[in-house]
Write a structure and sequence with these properties.
CATH architecture of the largest domain: Up-down Bundle
Number of domains: 2
Largest sheet: 6 strands, parallel
Structural class: alpha/beta
CATH class of the largest domain: Mainly Alpha
Bound molecules: fe (ii) ion
Strand content: 5-15%
Order of helices and strands: HEHEHHEHEHEEEEEHHHHHHEHHE
CATH superfamily of the largest domain: Dehydroquinate synthase-like - alpha domain
Length: 407
């Protein structure tokens, strides 16, 4: 169980246990460069962790062929499911050990990458999943760990954490340790072009939320701020492009880079109320993470405006190159940009399924999450949180069974 941390403690954690960026390959077919690096670094028996869906798409044929040509014996573990459970990961650990694998090569979305992180950590430490749950429980470095993300949004390819679902209690468990950061990552547009528009939009809005929540955190680091700003710029410009044309590989590359940078930024500076509320809504209504964030984000931008006008104005100046106007006016223009992006991506205004009987628990848990883990710029009261929930419920909404889930 993670302990409650003050803002100062959060900052000290980042300083004492710094998270470095993984070595990065970018470009079409950079997956092959990553496989070459793994082989050159001594990997002879990689465990390829992925989902069955990707294997069916035959996206992996080239990388499997490449490993084979390099003289590697690849073991494929394709048992990862969305929101991986202890059982799934224990299965992966068993396969990894039985085949004496010497590295882990993950190709997939956030769930696949999270599962692969824990498999790589447990195998090198010779422990089970339960022993690495929590903060700084990974004693020795993981197996050499390589990642090719097939969505652009979760940022798991950059972060120091993994989420596991505990089957009996349906609770999310976290493994948090800088050792979970991959050795190297390939952002390969070829691996992203089959992503459907709805998932492209939802995951991209997750990345935008990471960047904005990081940028408005009071836990500030200059490199995280720089990366968050660049991510915001790239996402506002190129996310609508890839939503409309998934085969625009240049735009795909830039959106995937933005996701990577946004995740680095939030890994250092933390998140905020969008995620705190979103996690509760997903727990109650199984709403997809990215889409839930996209719906909540405009509400939190308006909630934070009274204390973040200067930050939002800075972003607007960067985006427009215009500095005429007060901070408040420029902040309004930035918020309107986010509104417009949501409209272009057909993000609904709310959820029809929100039920008032759940409000009390949602509010309690959301405020607790924010208080415990995030360095938010403005504290929210229960009444303010209730107003936001009511606004989301009242807005023209969508039903969760009509929404796209990204894995
Ligand atoms: Fe997120």
């Amino acid at each position: 169980m993670l302990k409650r941390l003050s803002n100062f403690s959060l900052k000290m954690f980042t300083v004492l246990f710094p998270s470095e960026k993984p070595l990065l390959f970018t470009g079409v077919n950079s997956t092959i460069e990553l496989a070459s690096l793994a082989r050159a670094s001594g990997s002879k028996r990689p465990l390829l962790v992925t989902g069955k869906f990707l294997l069916k798409l035959e996206l992996l044929d080239r990388v499997l062929e490449h490993f084979k040509n390099e003289g590697c014996e690849v073991t494929v573990f394709d048992g990862v499911i969305p929101n991986p459970t202890y059982d799934v990961i224990e299965d992966g650990i068993r396969v990894c050990k039985e085949n004496n694998c010497d590295s882990v090569f993950a190709v997939g979305g956030g769930s696949t990458i999270d599962a692969a992180k824990v498999i790589a950590a447990c195998c090198s430490n010779n422990v089970g999943v339960e022993q690495v749950i929590g903060l700084l429980k990974v004693k020795q470095p993981t197996l050499p760990f390589y990642v090719v993300p097939t969505t652009s949004g979760t940022g798991s390819e950059t972060t120091n954490s993994a989420v596991i679902s505990e089957t009996k209690t349906h609770q999310k468990k976290f493994v948090v340790d800088p050792k979970l950061i991959p050795s190297a990552v390939a952002l390969d547009a070829n691996m992203l072009k089959s992503l459907p528009p709805k998932i492209t939009a939802a995951t991209g809005m997750d990345a935008l939320t990471h960047a904005i929540e990081s940028y408005t955190s009071v836990n500030r680091f200059s490199d995280a701020e720089r990366d968050a700003k660049l991510a915001i710029k790239l996402l506002l410009e190129y996310l609508p492009v890839v939503y409309e044309d998934g085969n625009d590989l240049e735009a795909r590359q830039l959106v995937s880079l933005a996701s990577f940078l946004a995740a680095y930024a939030f890994n250092k500076s933390g998140l905020g109320y969008v995620h705190a509320i979103s996690h509760q809504l997903s727990a109650y209504y199984n709403t997809p993470h990215g889409l839930t964030n996209a719906i909540i984000l405009p509400q939190i931008l308006r909630f934070n405006k009274s204390v973040c006008a200067d930050r939002f104005a800075n972003l607007e100046r960067m985006l427009s190159g215009v500095s005429i106007g007060s901070d408040e006016q420029l902040a309004d223009r930035f918020i309107e940009r986010v509104d417009t992006l949501g409209q272009r991506l057909n993000i609904p205004g709310g959820f029809k399924e929100l039920e008032t009987k759940h409000y009390e628990a949602i509010i309690r848990n959301a405020l607790k999450e924010a208080r415990s883990f995030y360095a938010v710029p403005r504290l929210m009261s229960p009444a303010q949180c209730q107003d936001i929930l009511a606004s989301i419920a009242a807005s023209s909404g969508t039903e969760t069974n009509q929404m796209a889930h990204a894995t």
